[in-house]
Design brief:
The protein has 687 residues and is of the alpha/beta class. The protein has three domains: 61-400, Na+/H+ antiporter like fold, CATH 1.20.1530; 411-540, Rossmann fold, CATH 3.40.50.620; 542-672, Rossmann fold. It is built from 24 helices and ten strands. α9 (184-215) packs antiparallel against α10.
Length: 687
Amino acid sequence: MQCVLISLPVTDPTWIFLIVLVIILFAPLLLGKLKIPHIIGMILAGVLIGEHGLNILERDSSFQLFGQVGLYYIMFLAGLEMDMEDFRKNKVKGLVFGILTFVIPMVLGVWSSMAILGFGALTSVLLASMYASHTLIAYPIVSRYGLSRQRSVTISIGGTAVTVTLALIVLALVSGLFNGTATPRYWLMMALKVTLICLVIFLVFPKIGRLFFRKYDDAVMQFVFVLALVFLGGGLISLAGMEGILGAFLVGMVLNPLIPKISPLMGRLEFVGNALFIPYFLIGVGMIIDVRSFVTSGTALTVAVVMTAVATLSKWLAAFATQKIYGLSKNERKMIFGLSNAQAAATLAAVLVGHEIIMENGERLLNDDVLNGTIVMILITCIISTIETERASRRFTLVEAHSSDIPQDDGGKENILIPVANPDTIDNLVNIALMMRPGQQKDGIVALNVVDDSNDAVSEEAGRRNVEKAAKIASAADVNARMLTRYDISISSGIVHTIKECGATAVVVGLHKKSSILDSTMGSLTGNLLKGTCREVIVARLEMPVNTLKKMTVMVPSKAEFETGFTRWVTHICRMAIQIGCRVSFHVTGAAAEHLRAAADKADIGTLAEIITEEDIPFSDRMSIAVKKEHLLVVVSARSGSISFEPAFERLPALLNRSFPESNLMMVFPEQVDRQDVVSFSDPRGT
């Protein structure tokens, strides 16, 4: 029997992929016990298995392919997870930090390269641009702690966009000098091409994405479509003469409003990137490091020490200067420094480009010592970045309740009940509930299937499939949904009893469709539900996916601020607007405007909210407004007998069905005080 030995390095694709998967699986487990961040574990594993280590694997085309995907993925997720509203509020601070974190490393980098390392002018400039750029490699830590909307995080992301762009321009300038194209006409054409491509990304890509998401709801198709846009943007920027990572970052920014933070698509994008592409990239980075060069050549060690020290010091100085200019706290400075210190994406691109450039004297623009020193710099700065970001995130979490800079979520634990009956509306109803729930809550969704005793087994089985579908959608967004099946004498009775049993704080149902002329617009189910519970009830009819909406128009009746559930429904609407990234216009009478602004500010909606004060006229007369196809009309109604109830509310459903037959519509019935607790003549001792 012949024994087959596996020769090193391994070349069989099956074994290569298996080894990589084993590393991705066990490296975090083993190094986590040593308190070493997972990111660093991947890089160290790459050093160990690479050709300069144990030579188990060679850096073949698979690492180049998946590494490039991972490189784009890091920048894409940074743009995708950016809070655009906070970015707009802190854009000046981000711009200032971006300029500081570019200029300071450039000055220190050029001086240290020429004075200490003895490099030429062009080599020094390119090397300094590597210090100036940085990668948000520690951003997953911020996301894990739920601090993505923290001011210092927003400033860091804004600064990243500025400094990476400037660093890539320097890279294009230096490489252009050596490829024979450095003429005024070349720079003019490159500027025109970059400008044109950026306009295409910012103007055309969102329209294409919105149109695609409206027509196709298949999860696989949406995922592939997004990746195609990412690489199309990167490829177009590469054709213009700049590195494609800038295009990936810009695509993430323009798709930001179309992919809510709490959505199944966002969960899939983060999962695939963090599980495969990004680890592949980090392992490939580690495989480049030649550990032996630091033993055999003292120059390589000197270069690595100088590069690491200058990169770290310059980033700290930029964070310190930003802190002093804007009066930030000490921990905010540490967060900015932690996020901006890691050198990976643009730095690696620059050193690889510079290493391939051969000067007239036959030497490389960036020699092997610089290449190895760069990898060591990437390794050490990533370690510092992850440790500092972890520490700063923990401090922010500990003082979150006392910090006014961190948005506070309102209302404690919530349970949103979704009765599922129509499989065509499940996606929209679940997505509405996901956007309305508190962001830090990993549960709070209850999918209910009510079985009428008179129904047969076929309808019962269909209901169970609907409940499973709702739970699957919620699970894709990393939210645990309870699946309930209830047998009752009627659908409305089953929903009302379940509200009490599971402690539901709100109910989201689909708008009834009239089956005959005699049928009511709201339907008997919704009417019985409003009579049977005092909890907030939301009735929705969406003609397109909720994430493709461009604006929300909210009609608020007079005296709405006196209802018990006023703050809750305002918070729900604001959360939806924040997740979608669209503007919301509240149409109110003069008396309610102040209360509404206070409730919206408490929900931390920022500048997305617009409050329009109208005359105190009958509510039905105020409904003569124009609603575009891509807008959502939200009508805040009231139950009979409540403070804000008007007689016109009885005819409101028919009015909406007649005036807005094909519009996206949502009716909100605010929570009321439990009728058992209302003081009346029949019960004078009520509380």
